[in-house]
Amino acid sequence: MTTVIDGKNVAASVIQTVKSATAALEKSSGVTTGLAVVIVGDDPASHAYVGSKGRMAKECGFKSVQHTLPAETKQEDLAALVATLNADPSIHGILVQLPLPKPLDSEAIIQSILPEKDVDGLSVVNAGKLATGDLKTGLVSCTPAGAMVFVRRTHGEDLSGLNAVVIGRSNLFGKPMAQLLLNANATVTIAHSRTKNLAEVCRNADILVAAVGRPEMVRADWVKPGATVIDVGINRVAAPERGEGRTRLVGDVAFEEVSAVASTITPVPGGVGPMTIAMLMANTVIAAHRAAGQTPPQF
Ligand SMILES: Nc1nc(=O)c2c([nH]1)NC[C@@H]1CN(c3ccc(C(=O)N[C@@H](CCC(=O)O)C(=O)O)cc3)C=[N+]21
Question: According to the lineage, what is the superkingdom (predicted)?
Answer without folding.
Answer: Bacteria
